[in-house]
Amino acid sequence: DEMILSFTLATCLILSAFRYADAFIISTRPCQTDGPVVCLRAKGDKLRESTGIRPSLHPITINAIAEALKLRSKGEKLRVDDGFQPIDVATVAGKLAEDFLRKRRETSDQDDMLLTPEEEQTIAGRVVGVVMRFDDLEETLYKKVSGVGWVKKYDEWVSFGVLSEENEVDSRIQQDPLFAMSRAECLLAVFLHTIEAPRLKEIDVVLPGGSNVDFIDSDRFEVIIGDSDG
Fold first, then answer.
1. Phi-psi category of 29—alpha, beta or left, where left has phi over 0 and alpha has psi -120 to 50?
2. Per-residue pLDDT for 86 more than 60?
3. Which is nearest to 5 in space by CA: 100, 93, 136, 131?
4. Which helix (H) or strand (E) holds 26?
5. Distance between CA atoms of 78 and 128, rounded to whole angstroms?
6. Cα distance between residue 14 and residue 191, in whole Å
7. Chain centre distance of CA 80
8. Residue 49 · residue 116 · CB < 8 Å
9. In contact, 48 and 55? CB cutoff 8 Å
10. Which is higher by pLDDT, 77 or 139?
11. Are 193 and 228 a contacting pair, CB within 8 Å?
12. How far is residue 32's CA from residue 40's CA, in Å, rounded to a whole number?
C-alpha cells in the first residue's frame, strides 16, 4: 500500500536531501503568510520576545538522536534491510521525535516558551534525517576522527562519541550516557554540515534557527567541520 507522509515545507526540504527520499511520496503544504509566523498558543518569554531570540532547536534534537542510538543499541530496528524499509525507519524516528516534542510542549505550558510549528517540524525532520542516515553519518564521523593524530595520541575518541574499535559501540552507548550524547552531537554536526546546509543553500532556503553548527566545542568543530573532505 502506498503511504503518503504529509510534512510542511521545512521537514520536506530536509527529507529531500536523504538518500532514501525517493522512497517517499511527500505531500507539502507550504505555510503562506505575509509576515512572521506566530504560534497562537505561545504567550512567549518577554525577554526573548523583545530581542527576537528564539530557543535553540539543537538540545531537543540531540536528545532525541541520543535516545535513538540507545534504542538501536538494544536491538530496535533502525536500519534498512530486507525486512525493514525506509518508511519503517522513518516511522520509528518520527514517533521518537514526536515523543520528545510532546514533552517539550508540556514543559512549555509551564515556562511559556512554546516552539512554533515550523520549529517543531525542523526538529522532527532533523531527527528523521539523522536516524535514516545513521550508517553513512557514522562512517563519515569515524573517518574524520580517526584521521586526526591528536585524537589517537591523547585517546580523545570518546569526546566524539567514537571508539577506536567500533565493534563495542553499542555496549558503550548503553553504559555511558555522556558517550551517547557526544555521538549524537557529532552526528548532528555532520548531518547539518554535509547534508542539510548544502542542500538548503542550493534552493536558497533558511530553516528556523539556521543550519550552523554552534553546539560543539572548538576542538571538535575543527575536526568535524574544519576539513570538509575529512
1. beta
2. yes
3. 93
4. strand 25-28
5. 11
6. 10
7. 18
8. no
9. yes
10. 139
11. yes
12. 16
Locus of grid cell 560543539: 216
Cell numbers describing residue 198: 548544502
Indicate the DSSP class of residue 150: H
Tell me how far apart the alpha carbons of residues 113 and 46 are, in angstroms, rounded to a whole number: 10
Query: Could you tell me the three cell numbers for 57?
Result: 532547536
The C-alpha cell at 170 is 553499542
Strands of 117-179, DSSP E: none
Phi, psi of 39 (to 5 degrees): -85, 110
What pairs with residue 26 in β-bridges?
5
Are the C-beta atoms of 186 and 141 separated by less than 8 Å? yes
In sequence order, the 6+-apart residues with CB closer than 8 A to the CB of 67 are 96, 100
Compute the distance between CA of residue 183 and CA of residue 169 in angstroms, rounded to an integer.
10
Q: Look up residue 8 and give its DSSP letter.
A: -
pTM of the model: 0.79
Handedness of CA 170, 171, 174, 180 (dihedral sign): negative
Which of 158, 220, 230 is closest to 194 using CA atoms? 230
pLDDT band at 180 (very low <50, low <70, confident <90, very high): very high
* Neighbouring-strand partners of residue 84: 81
